[in-house]
Each structure stands twice: as structure tokens, then as C-alpha cells.
Amino acid sequence: MKYAGIIVDNNTSATDALYTYRTELEDIAVGQKVIVPFTMHDRRAEGYVATLSDEAPEGLSRIKDIIEIVPGVQLSEEAVKTAMWMHDRFLCRYIEAVKCFLPVSEAKRRTKDPFADLECEPTEPKKLTKAQAAALSEINSAVEAKKNTVFLLHGVTGSGKTEVYLQAMQKVIDMGRCGIVLVPEISLTPQLVSRFASRFGLDRIAVLHSKLTPAQRGEQYKRIESGGVKLAIGARSAIFAPFTDIGLIVMDEEHETSYKSDKSPKYDTLELAEKRAMYHGASIVLGSATPSVKDYYRSEKGLFRRLELAERYNSNPLPRAYIVDMTKEVKAGNRSLFSKKLAEGIRKTLDDNKQVILFLNRRGYASYVSCRECGHTMRCPECGITLTYHREEDALVCHYCGRKQPMPKVCPDCGSRIIGRFGAGTEQVEEKVHELFPDASAGRLDLDTAKRKGGMESVLKQFEKGKTDILIGTQLVAKGLDYANVGLVGIISADVTLNIPDFRSAERTFQLVTQAAGRSGRGEEPGSVVIQTYAPQDPAIVFAARHDYRSFYEREIELRKAAAYPPFADIYQLVISDEDEQLAFESAKRCAVWLRKKLPEGVHVLGPAPGVLVKASGQFRYQILIKSPAGSRKSTSSAIMQLRDIYAKQKGVAKLFTTDIDPYSFI
User: How far apart are the first and last CA of the chain?
Assistant: First the structure.
């Protein structure tokens, strides 16, 4: 007789536990899918075997029997262990973690590989620069020794990080092992797949991302499990690729926020990569021109091994950056989206038969209030975070501590009455381009175009072929695009990310400005970038214009330390939601009171405060933020899990209770 701990496929907090069942089935194994009697009425339910023991747990009076094993489904021991770890680390439900390791459904028929028609000519390894060769040597040594090492490959834009990935992965494949390559956006997948397919052959690569149909995803999993595929490429979900012998995991553009899941389970891809690498004796390469402050700090402390690529591969200089003070443009009578410098730059670039990229990261929640005369932005005096305007209340609200203040009539800094919300989108930019440059062809790449089937690929292909002169877009155009004919990048407003209500706003601004600028001058001739801003002296913008990561990091890490933000603390976000606003608020308030009593000294509970989106999908949302200093993570997580269990059993409370650790969005 064996006793199994079963994760039942019932996605509610009330049933988020391991249920003990017994069985005499001799072929029972961890990771199998089974049918069990569940609830007092013994209805049939699916579940997964998480643990097996020869002895029954103490204190159980009645143990039911497993009905049967479901054939054809077998999670690996590693997958089960990792799912159990995810439950504790990310405060998700067991079943949510388990399903990350399963294809959405079994493929009932063979489906066409979405990249089967990808055009790729075979390529040979490129000659490496001295810096590239040194970096590759260190990575290969760790791979050969099966060391669990994390490398931070800090290379300026255009320094040849991808070639290092390719040659490092060649070593892995030559050893008969497997590799995973992650990109932050689906839009970057075709480019990277093409580079790797040209080197290794498309038949040896599986592609995994959220746009695959269930049948396509199932087919990719079958290819991996059959052993014919040695490499998986895709967005963050590719970290769950069912390889049994991983030698190397690469995370390109490792700083990108999309590596943090915003849907439950709200996992951090890097932490999962570290967990899997530890199990397999694999190494990890994190590549970026603008590493996250948190990961660069870890490299400073010796937790990661930092490798530097300080120059571009073709020895071209980095693009020359010009900062344009938009307050001066306004005073000079120019209220256009384009400064004189940018408009002239676009015209000259087009006349030189070069292409232009115009970048504006306009997101709905990023509205802020600033003075058009001096550039002063309204911030919370308590938290230092940008205040967000709420139309319903005609008030400025801090989404960290809940503080509210009326919309100012005059600027508190200079007394000007020219105050307003900043807000221009990519569609407005496109209209202005057609108005000012009617002879130029323009394309737009943002969420609207990306949602249309094939829309993103079509826009990028037109630009790559030179049929589009000016590409306008959000952060999608700032990530990893490599086109040799781009002579100018124009950043319409660097302030949009500078003033989001988030302690990482300066970091995001520095990263996006640097990354967007890096799309320019990647061919034989130097490029340039025009940065438009109402805050020309802001350190994030000044350092980005200088391509000076080190100076930005040194300033930012001191601010984080003083304010006890990551990497010096974890930030936990609890969101309480309900159709009844008062009930949502009262429930959140009760949770905050409980947490303040339960959590140890030094752990700070902020709120409850209304979410940035106070009402979403008919639900009023209130959030609690917890600053948990280094060393207190275990006790904080334990308290929140205890609160969640208590909350699930309560009556008369708000319907939804969600948690996130170190979120990258406070919407």
C-alpha cells in the first residue's frame, strides 16, 4: 500500500493543499495524472501525484483510494519539485504551478510549425573580438565543468552579445546537452529564431510562446520529449520546456519587465531559471546593455559573474545623443510633438536615404501632472513617487500610501499656471509624421497593430526591406531590433516612463532611452538620437545620453538603499477587489490591520490605497504594499500565506484576494 499526496485540479484557495489518497497500484509514480474521489460527494476529479510514501500521515481517520491513473501524462520529478517550490516562493496555488509544465492540451493532429517557412541561410561562426572571446571562454569553461554559474553579460548595444550566445550554445549541443534561449517579447522571436536556425538548423529548434495554438504548443512539446530537439527559443513560458538535460539558459535583454509574469502564477523567470539550472548543473547567461539594478548589484556582490563588452562589434562609436529641453520649445512658441532639432534631423536622415525610428512609450496608466514652464512634476511628499491624476475625484493620488491632494491651480515650484496632464500617443505621432513628411512612408508598431494577426511581423518586415522610411512605436521598437540602415532615433518624450508611479521609474527611463538609442548607427555609419524631455537635467536622462551605465547605477543604488527598495527589500503587493467598493476597502483595511499585528518589527505595511486602476472589469481594487527587508522574506511570505488561508474561509469579505512579490506593475 502506498500513500500519495495529490494536487487536485480545483483552482481555488480553499482547496490549495495536498490531499492524501492511498493506492495498491504498483506502477504509481510522482508526476502522474490520476482520477480521485473528491469532496464529500466523491465526485471524480483529476489530480497530480506530488509525493509518495509507504506510511500514512498521522491523524487521518479516513483515506480514500485513487480510482485510476490517466495514461499518457507524466510530469518529471524536477517539474513536480519546482511546482512545489513555486507555491511557496511566489505564493501561487499548487495547481497553477503544475499547469505551467503542461502543454495547454494534447495535440490531436499534426499542425504546421509556425516557423516552418522561416527564411534562413546557413551561417558560420563569426570571428570574435577580444572581449567576446574572453566572455565565451569563461562561459564554455563553466558549461564543460557543469558548473551552476550565473553570468551577467553586460554589453553595449551592438557589441555582439548574440554571437556569444550562439557559440556558447554550440558548446552545449556538442556535449549532447540542451539549451533554452529566452527573449522578452514575441516580436523578437522571429529574428532570434532566424539567427539560431541559420546556425543550427530549424529542425533542431522548438519555438514556445503564448501565441501558439494549443495544438501547436503540444506539438512543440512532443518534439522536445522525443529527443530530436536540442534548443528551445521563446518568451518567458519557454523556461518550462520539458528538457531532461539542460546545459545552458540564456536570457536576452534580461532587464525587461516582461520576464515577470503578470498573471497567476506571478513568477519571476530568472528565479525559475536559477532553480532549473541548479537541478541540471547548468549555467545561465543574462545579456543586456542596461542590466537591472538588482542584477548588477548581485554581480557587484559576487553572486553573479560579470562579463563586459564595452565596444560595438564593428568598432563604430555609439550614437551621438542630443537632449532637447521641451520647456524651451514651448517658450519659443513650438507646441508641436516634434522639436526643431528632431524635425530637422528626420528631414536630413530621409534625404540621406536612411531610416528613422520614433519612440514614444505611451501607456494608459502613466498619465502625470507637470508644469509646462519649469518641468516640475507633482510627487507624493511621503513616498517620493509620482502622483497619478484621478478624473472622478479631480485629485492627485499616491498609489503607494494612499495620500490624496487636490489638483494644483499653480505650480508649487515656479508659480506658473501652465499645468496639465501629459498625454500623446503613437497615433498622434503618426498623424504628425504624415503632415510634416508627406513624401515618407510610415509604419506604426504598438499594441493596436500587434493585436492584429500578423500585424507585428508585417510592420517589421516592411521596415527591414526598406519599404518603410519611418517606424513609429512604443517599447516594442526599443527592444533588440537590429537594422543597419537606421540613422536616427527620436524619443518623443523621455518623461513618460520617468513619471510612472513606480520606484523603478528612473531605471526604466534609463533603460528605454539607452535601448531605443541603441537601434541607431548599427551599420557602417554612425547614428544619432534626439531625446525630447521636460526634465533635461534628470540624471537618468543625462546618463542615458552619455551611455554611462555605471554612473547611473551608483546613484540609483544609493537611493534604493536609503528608501529600502529592492535589492535591499522585497515588495509584496496584495490586491483586494469586489464589485462593492466599500466592501473592498473594508476587507483590505482588515487585512492591513492583521498584517501589522502579525509581521515582525522592521517590516512596513503601507495602505490600503486605491489601485492605479481603481476599477477594472467591474471590480473596485484596493492594494496593500509590504516592504520586507532582506532577511525577513520567509516570515513575511509565511504570514501572507496564513492570511490567505484565513481569508479563503471568511464570509462577508471582498471576492478577490491576489498577491504578487516584487511586481513590475502597480496597476
Answer: 50
